[in-house]
Each structure stands twice: as structure tokens, then as C-alpha cells.
Amino acid sequence: MCFRRYFQKRRAEKQLKRLTEAERQAILKESPLDVFWAQGTGFAILKKDEPDSAKSYVHGIDEMDGRFAEDWIIRKYLLANHENRDKVCIGIIIFGAALGGIMSFFTGRNSGQASYFAATAPVKAITLPLPFPTDVRYQASPDSTVLLGTVKHEPGLFTISAFDRATAKKLWQLPFIGNVVGQTSRHVLVYEAKTSTVHFINPRTGETTRKVSPEPAPLTSPSSLYAGMAFTDDLYLTTKPLYQDVIANRQTDTSWKIGITAKSWVNNETVWFLPPVKQIVITDYQPIIKGNKVLVINTEQKIGEGHSYQIVSLKTGEELHRSVTEGTYYPLNNDLFIERTNAFVRRLDPFTQQETWRLNGDFSCGQVWQHGEQISIISRHPTGTRNTVRIVNSVSGKLRTQFDLPFINEADIKGAYLTSYNQLFLHFEQSDFSNPGTLLYDYWVRYDPQTQKALWRTDFHSESISSLLPFLTL
């Protein structure tokens, strides 16, 4: 077992207070739990009849630019193993904001900044090679030479602008506040709540080339189904899991079925429907559209089960291919698709099933992150007494560095980065669940693996540099 086997009942009760009374009672009534423990985007349980055996599960929804994050609430609670309902009962809590990270299970949780990892280290700013504004959060656009920038005004409302990636020059700013809800291969999709309109924006010029009003119901549904949506200029795809509904005019739209539905922007009619491979309970990843094909990733639906993925036709929804792994799939940025098992990590093209590179080794209890052209892999050391960190070139698979890292209980680690000057940084990030759409902290620590000491750190709120780093080389 890679997680702690004992969770104090006191902590469990404290975490349960985050739920409504109705949700709390439903969990305690329907689940045979002696202890219900929730930490970040994960949870674990101890069964009453197996008090010494902890069963745990991790589910995470990474924050993606705060998009509709405020619509998320603590949600559904019961996933049963339908083959033997009496043997496995799992409480599910879904927290947070948008699509693709997962809670770091290498860490604990503390409430005060003074207790964060490297809290007393000197505070410095990372020197950037270009003068990008430091109050903006950045993301990619359909044009690889353009970065989108957002500044939050209030929940779901942002100033949206664009910057030249090579010069940091500001290209444009939209004349209204809105929310970046997605992208097609050519356009940025911005939702303007004031007019209930989706704007199709040219990423280079900022020009609105098309408008759709009213917006598709899943985009603004209280169930936040946008986390499982994907877009083209002609279609929008919506993933409906088991415990989420499409809400329109304050009523449930029962026409939406569990699975993936492709609808037309023009007339809102269904073009095709893809039923689930298995019962969809949670949605971790958006469908990924490439050319005339769609990649659908099915994450773990019950304990001990691996991931699977499907390739379907964008035109018809017909399944073209299906693959299964005993491990985990990670769809990262820039068409980067990683498979991790306990014995290897490899990059492959899911559309052609061609392997690009493979790294063999012990990757049990592993987690994978990407920062630009670097992949950081943190896994449990074979002795179980510490973690092992590997930083790999995402293109070649070449191992750049490897070192052991003591367990860090003061903050959630979300990867590592090695500069061209061989300076090592550790990244720490945690969502603030008391204020959805914001982060409790997001900072970087200059770390010396030889002495195992933190040399200095950035400000606890370095969201701007974290969002910009994937597009720069330090």
C-alpha cells in the first residue's frame, strides 16, 4: 500500500465538516466506513470489517485557469463495485476547478504559511528571459506563437489578452470580461456571461469571427460539465458522467445520456453519441481532438483497475481503436501522451500506437508532470523510505537527472524543473477549497539534492511564473 494505512478519526471528522449535512449523512449511511478521510482531491476509507486494511483512491481535477471553478462544489459520494457490492464501497468527493492534475499523495496538509516547506528560506524571484507581466496567468493558444493571458476580476470573469511568445509584446485585449472555456484548432472560445454568448476569437488579432448565443447548456451547467468538453469549429463534445447532470433553466435536461455526445454549434442537434466503455463515474480528462479523430481516456473507475483509452471517428463517433494499461495514462501538453506502470514510463502516440521512447525502472506509486520540454517523475524508492525524482527530456526520453527526495509533509509537490545552468527547482501547489478557483499556494523552491536543503523560494503566490514556465527555457 502506497498510502498511509492509518487515518485519525479526528481528522476525518474535521474533513467531513466540509460537506453539507445531507451529503455527510448519505456517506455515513450508505458506506460501511469506520473512518472517512478526505485530503485535497483524494480520499481514503477504512472498512468496518477490515480495520487494519486501508483502501484508498485518488481523484483530482486540476485547476485550469479558474474556468468555472466557482461552479464546483463538494459532490457525489458513492461508487460501488457492481460485481460485488458488499465488498467495495468507496466514498467519492470531487473538489476544485478544471481538467487533467492529480493530488500529490507524497505530502500532508498544514494550514499556516509558516509551516509550508521552505517557509523560512530567503524569498527571491525567478529571473525570466522576457519581460512578461507578472500579474497575468498564461496558457497556450491555437497559434503556437501566441500566449493567452487572464487576470481574474471575480468568479468566472477575467480580463483576456494575448502576448507574442517570442517578444512578450501585448497583442490585444478583449473589450469585455469573460472566461476562456476552450479552443478549437483555429479559435479561442470565450464565454461572455453578460450576453450569454460564446465568442470565437482569432488568437493573433483578437478579432471575433463568430458568435454563438445562447451558449450550450453544459458550458454553464452548475455541474461544470465543461471539464469533459472538447471543441471544433463545427462541433462541441460533452462527456456526461454518472453523477452529473446538464442543468438548463434550473431544470435537469434528461436528454443527455451517460457517455460522450457530439452536437452541432449551428443547430444544437446531436451528430453522434458514444456510450461509455464502462459506467462513467468521474471525468478526469477532456476528449482530445486531432485531425478527424478523438482520443477518449477512461481513468480508473474502481480500485486496482488501470486506465484505458479509445480512438473514435470525429465524424461518426465510431470506435477505431482501444488500448488498456495496468497503469496510468497522462495526456500532457503539446500532444505529449505518457503511460506509467510500476515497471516503466514511456511516451507513445495514442493515435498510431507508436512508442517514441521508454524508461525502464521502478515507478511504483508514481506521478508525472510536465514543464515545457521536461517531464518530472516522482515515485516511491524501492526501500519505501523516500521518493525518487527523475527529470526526463520529453522529446528524446533522455534522463537529465535523478535524485532521492525525503518525504515532504508540509506541502503538495507538483514536479521538478532543471534549468540550463543545472539549477534544480521543486514546485509546490495546492488548491484553496474554501475559496474555489484560487490556490492556497503556488511556489518554487531552489533545492540542493546533495545537501537536501532549500536554498531559497519564490513568493507563495507565484501562479504567473508557474503558468509561464512551460513556454520558456530557463
How would you characterize this protein structure?
By secondary structure, the protein is mainly beta. Among the domains are: 1-89, no CATH class; 328-473, Beta Barrel (Lipocalin). It is built from four helices and 35 strands. The protein has helices spanning 9-16, 21-30, 217-220, 463-468; strands at 33-39, 42-47, 54-58, 78-80, 89-91, 137-140, 146-154, 157-164, 170-173, 179-183, 188-192, 197-201, 208-212, 229-231, 235-240, 247-248, 251-252, 259-264, 270-274, 288-290, 293-298, 308-313, 319-324, 328-331, 337-340, 344-349, 354-360, 367-371, 374-380, 387-393, 399-405, 413-418, 424-431, 439-448, 453-457. The strands form ten sheets. A four-stranded antiparallel β-sheet has the order 6-7-8-9. Strand 33 (424-431) and strand 34 form a beta hairpin. It starts with 8 loop residues before the first helix and ends in a 6-residue tail after the last helix. The model is unreliable at 1-17 and 28-111 (pLDDT under 50).
Concise synopsis of the structure shown:
This protein has about 475 residues and is mainly beta.
